[in-house]
Design brief:
single chain, 232 residues, alpha+beta, five-stranded antiparallel beta sheet, four-stranded antiparallel beta sheet, 23% strand, rod-shaped
């Protein structure tokens, strides 16, 4: 408020033509900043409103201070405040149409907000391991033959380099067999007909039809998509 009053006194002491230049610059600033910086436009409008009386006093002082000078000042006041009303209307219309600012969350909300993906509980079904004979029953039908470290399935699929230790997923989609040296597993995805040889991994169990594996006996189980690193 003190700055605005000082500005009015300063404009009243300056020549009227210099005051007019300052007020025209403020009016142009209001129009230019209305769409980009509403806050600065409001400050320019407030300075324009307070500066107009100072310029009118400088006008009547320059005209001699008589009755004609005061009449010219009043006419200038009528024109000036009409322009101010127009600028105020433009500024308020822009403020009403401006999108409301989203309130920032409190620090307590940020502290309690979950970080990362939502956790879920995984329960694994144990692997039902079997020892291969010469002919095995396939849960999807038919027989599986094991000979010389290789399983042969109906349809021609051959899984070689494996031991007699094998198993199926609960619904039979996956076939698992341990490698001969016991240092990894071989998984066959029968739906996609893809074979995965995972050295250094041991099958921990099944989540539905999804295999979960770990590195070593005490390793943390992870889903096959993490083992393969394909994000599936």
């Amino acid at each position: 408020m003190l700055l605005l009053i000082a500005g009015v006194v300063l404009l009243a002491m300056l020549p009227w033509w210099l005051d007019l230049t300052v007020l025209v610059a403020l009016a142009i600033s209001v129009i230019a900043l209305t769409h980009s910086a509403v806050g600065y436009a409001a400050w320019c409008g407030r300075a324009l409103k307070w500066g107009l009386p100072g310029m009118l006093f400088a006008v009547q002082r320059a005209l001699g201070g008589d009755l004609l000078a005061w009449g010219a000042a009043l006419l200038g006041a009528l024109v000036g405040f009409s322009v101010l009303a127009l600028l105020d209307s433009l500024l308020h219309r822009q403020i009403e149409h401006a999108p409301a600012a989203t309130p920032s969350p409190e620090w307590s909300e940020l502290a309690m907000a979950p970080i990362g993906p939502r956790a879920r509980r995984v329960e694994l079904e144990r692997v039902s391991w079997r020892d291969a004979g010469h002919a095995l029953t396939d849960p999807l039908g038919g027989l599986v033959h094991y000979e010389a470290g290789a399983y042969r399935f109906v349809g021609g699929r051959l899984i070689d380099g494996v031991s007699v230790r094998y198993g199926f997923s609960p619904a039979g989609r996956w076939v698992v067999a341990s490698m001969r040296d016991g240092l990894g597993e071989v998984l066959w995805d029968r739906d996609g007909d893809r074979l995965h040889r995972l050295r250094g991994w041991q099958l921990c169990g099944w989540e539905g039809e999804l295999p979960w594996l770990a590195r070593g006996v005490d390793g943390v189980p992870v889903g096959l998509w993490e083992v393969l690193g394909d994000g599936e």
